[in-house]
Structure formats: structure tokens, C-alpha cells
Input
Amino acid sequence: MITSRQNLDWKAVFDPFSLVYIVAGVFCAAAALQVFMLPNKFLDGGVTGIAIIINLHYGINLTLLLVVINIPFLWLGWRKIGKTFAVQSSFSVFLLVIVLEFLKFPAITSDLVLSAIFGGLLMGLGIGLIIRGGGLIDGFEVITEFVQKNSPLSASEITIFLNSLIMLFAAIFFGIEPAMYSILTYFTAIKMTDYVVEGFEEYTALTIISREDDKVKELIVREFGKAISVYKGERGYLPETFHIKHPCDIIMTVVTRLEVHRIKEAIQQIDPKAFFYVQTIKEVKGGVIKRVGKKHS
Output
């Protein structure tokens, strides 16, 4: 989801780290287009996908299309999301246009699968870096954010619907096979963007209900060096003995995905009948989450 302050923050616009992210991202996106995607008629989603379809089918200049199609979305971003975001996104779009116009990257492979995968990886890397810099090169994210606020559909459902239409037009204009490769490129780009924006190290919320709750708390805190949150609850209510219940502490901790298996095994050694469930979380701030715990034997 896009968030930005409404007032124009020139300090944020000219922040050196943001500019480095945006410039690096633009060069990655331009290379993905020229090296892998355009030579094979592969599409990305959103505005870029629409521009590629029109360019390849009608011969209209791609850079002109990227500017013209993005303008209404950038204006909407200025009005509805934030001026700083709109300025950084405008800079990203115009820089991409300049790079595509004046720099030419040669194609390096004719293999369609390699082109789809590495085109998606490079495009996703570029988009992710630009997002980390505070901008966008694709105005579809703006309309997704706007429509979501006025629609019962989620942002992901809107994005999938709009991009499905783009892939349908790709199949009509260029054939089923290029459209299928385009879908591979698109989903590779999405996954790579997620990795760049959110990080490769995903965090997991682990919730445990155990009759040995004191021992489990001590294990997580002392042996693995993790902070915990404790909720007062009740365990029991089994189908055969629904009337039987016991007070207990419900324990929740945040760990990395690499630590989940070790902690679950250690808990089961304490209480083989412990109940726990795992949830993936997108962002964590504060607390004790990056400390590497002791290896539990």
C-alpha cells in the first residue's frame, strides 16, 4: 500500500539514498525492457504492459507512451496520495524515458525461458529499488490504491483483475505463447519486487498454547533469546470433553523463518501435545527480533 505525506517535502525528494535507489532501479528496469522483454514481445503488468502492447502493435514510440499514460495516474497520486510521492514518481518515470531513449542495451539471449525469468527478475529488482526510493514507474499502483478505497475488492484482487485484462490483450495481439511467457515474467517481477521491498528475511509470528507454558516461556526467552507476549486464556474444549477447561498463558513470539523449525522441535520436547500455529507477517519494528538465539540441543 502506498503511503505518503500530503505536503511536498523537498528534503525527502532530494535525499541522496532515495535518489540512488531510484536511479539504480530505473537502470535495472530499462535493461530488463531492452535486453529481455521487448525483443521477445514479453509484457510486464500495469502501465508498462499497456505501453508495450501499443508500441509493438501500432508502432507508437514507447517512451512517449510511458509519459502520456502515466500522466493521469501521477496527477491522481498528487491529488489523493501525496505531493512528495508524485514528484518522486514523476522523476522516476521521466528518468526511465531518458534512459530508454538515449541508452541502448543489447539483447544477450534468444532463449525464451531465460528471457522471461531474468527479465522478470531485473524488472522486479528495478521496481523494488524505485519503491524503496519513494517513487513508482507504474501508475497502476496509484489507481489500485484509489479504487480500493471506493470498492469492496482488495488491492490484490484489483491488481490481478487489471493485469489479467492486459495479458488477455497480449494473447489477442501477439498469440498465446508470448502471453504465457509474459505471465511468467510478470509473476517473477512481483516476487522479486516483494523481496527487494520487504527483505529476503521474512518474519513469522509463532503462537503456542501449552500446559507447560512456564517452561515454554523460559525456553523461548532464555534459550533462543526472543521476546514474547503473553495473553491470558483457556485451553481445553475438546469435542469429547467440551465441559473441561483449564486456564493457561497463550504465548506469542516473532521469529525468522529459519528459526521456526528449531523452536517448534524444542517446544515439542517439553510438551508433545502443545498446540501452535504460524503466521507470516510483513513488517516488524522494535523489540528483540534480530538477535540470534543460542543453538538449542
Q: What stands out?
A: Residues 1-5, 291-297 have pLDDT under 50 and may be disordered.
